[in-house]
Design goal:
Blueprint (H helix, E strand, L loop, with lengths): L2 E4 L3 H12 L4 E5 L2 H10 L1 E4 L4 E4 L2 E4 H5 L7 E4 L6 H8 L8 E4 L6 H8 L4 E14 L2 E14 L6 H10 L6 E2 L3 H18 L6 H5 L2 H20 L23 H15 L8 H9 L5 H14 L5 H14 L8 H7 L2
Parallel strand pairs: 1-2, 1-6, 2-5, 3-9, 6-7, 7-8, 9-10
Antiparallel strand pairs: 3-4, 8-9
Helix pairs in contact: 4-5, 7-9, 12-13
Length: about 350
C-alpha cells in the first residue's frame, strides 16, 4: 500500500526518510516549495545520532498534490496541530472508504481528524521524536524516543498491523489499545517542555535544579487531573511516569527526583537540547503549537470545574513571547512559581 506523508518537517521528515530508505512507496507533500525542490534534486538528508544518510523520495508541493487524480491508501499526517483542519480538508476528496489517516502529530489532533472524515478512517499515534527541520532538504534527528499507534476504540485490527509493520522500518514502533493514555501522558510532559521554552536554557538545565521541579510537577498534574476526569489512564514513556505525579497525595519526592535524574540522563544522550517550541519562538519567530496543546486541556478542565492556573499562565506567557511582549528568560519560571 502506498504511503502519503503530509508534512515534511521534523516528524514527517524523519519517518519519510527511514521508510523510503527501506524501500517503501512514499510520496512526501509539503507547502515549503524550497524544501520540496531540494529533496527532489538532492534527496532528503536525515542527520541522526548514529548515522547521516540521504535518500531519494518522490516529493511534491501541496499545490501539485491537489492537481493529482488519485485515491490515497495510508496517509501519515505530520503537519503542526494548527494546520490539521486545513490539511484534512485539502485531502478529503482523495480519500475513499478504505483510506486511513494516521495522526503523526503533537497534541490531541485525532478528534479533529475524526470529526472531519470519521473515526473509522482515523488512527491515533503517540510520537515522542526529538527532531528538527534545519533547512531545505535537511532534518536533524536528535533522539529516538517512542512511537505508538492505536485505533481510537482500542481494538487491534488488520490495518493497524499493516501500518505497524511499515513503521518498524523506522525503529521499534509499537501498537497499543490505550492510545488516549499515551496522548494524555504526553500532554502532561508537553506542559513541562513548553515551560522550558519560557527560557533560553537547555531542557536539562531547566529540569536539573531541584527548586524548579515542584512547579513543573504541579503544571504536569493539571493535565493529569483532566485526564482522570475524562476516564483516561495516562501511560508512561521514555522515563516519564505520570503515576509518580498524580494522584498528588501519593507522591514520593525521593522517587520523583530519582526519576527526574534518570530522565535527564536520557536527554543528555540526545543531540536535540531545546524544544521545537523554543525553535519556533527563537529561531523561526513564528506562532507555536502551544495553544493547540494547552487550550483543549483548559476547555476540558472547565467542563469538569477544574482549575488550571499554571496551564493558563503558561499559555499566556508563551503568547506574549510570540508577540514580543515578553522576553524569553528564566525569570518567567520564577513567575510561575508564585502562581
Amino acid at each position: 500500500m502506498a504511503i502519503t506523508i503530509i508534512g515534511a518537517g521534523a516528524i514527517g521528515g524523519v519517518i519519510a526518510g527511514y521508510l523510503a530508505k527501506s524501500g517503501e512507496n512514499i510520496t512526501l507533500v509539503d507547502v515549503n516549495e524550497a524544501h520540496i525542490q531540494r529533496i527532489n534534486k538532492h534527496g532528503l538528508r536525515v542527520e541522526a545520532l548514529t548515522e547521516d544518510f540521504t535518500t531519494q523520495i518522490n516529493a511534491v508541493t501541496m499545490e501539485e498534490f491537489m492537481e493529482m487524480d488519485l485515491y490515497l491508501d495510508i496517509v501519515f499526517l505530520a503537519v503542526k496541530a494548527q494546520h490539521t483542519e486545513t490539511a484534512i480538508l485539502q485531502i478529503k476528496n482523495k480519500l475513499n472508504n478504505e483510506s486511513m489517516v494516521v495522526s503523526l502529530q503533537n497534541g490531541l489532533c485525532e478528534q479533529v481528524i475524526a470529526n472531519l472524515i470519521g473515526a473509522d478512517r482515523t488512527i491515533g499515534s503517540f510520537v515522542n521524536i526529538f527532531s528538527d527541520y534545519i533547512g531545505p532538504g535537511h532534518i536533524k534527528y536528535g533522539g529516538a524516543g517512542s512511537l505508538y499507534i492505536g485505533e481510537l476504540d482500542g481494538s487491534f485490527t488488520n490495518r493497524l498491523e499493516v501500518i505497524h509493520r511499515k513503521l518498524l522500518n523506522w525503529r521499534d514502533a509499537k501498537k497499543t489499545s490505550n492510545i488516549q493514555g499515551y496522548l494524555w501522558g504526553k500532554m502532561s510532559y508537553a506542559s513541562v517542555l513548553i515551560a522550558t521554552a519560557l527560557t533560553d536554557e537547555r531542557i536539562v538545565d531547566v529540569l536539573k535544579p531541584v527548586e524548579n521541579r515542584e512547579v513543573l510537577i504541579e503544571l504536569a498534574s493539571e493535565a493529569l487531573v483532566v485526564a482522570h476526569q475524562e476516564g483516561v489512564e495516562p501511560e508512561e514513556f521514555d522515563d516519564w511516569i505520570p503515576s509518580l505525579i498524580y494522584p498528588k497525595e501519593q507522591r514520593n519526592w525521593t522517587k520523583i527526583n530519582s526519576q527526574f535524574d534518570k530522565h535527564i540522563n536520557r536527554l543528555l544522550t540526545y543531540k536535540k537540547v531545546k524544544t521545537g517550541f523554543w525553535r519556533d519562538l527563537k529561531i523561526h519567530k513564528r506562532k507555536t503549537e502551544v495553544p493547540y496543546y494547552l487550550e483543549p486541556v483548559i476547555e476540558l478542565a472547565k467542563k469538569h470545574n477544574i482549575a488550571t492556573p499554571l496551564t493558563c499562565s503558561l499559555l499566556g506567557m508563551i503568547k506574549e513571547i510570540e508577540n514580543e511582549d515578553r522576553l524569553m528568560t528564566v525569570d518567567n519560571l520564577e513567575i510561575l512559581k508564585t502562581i
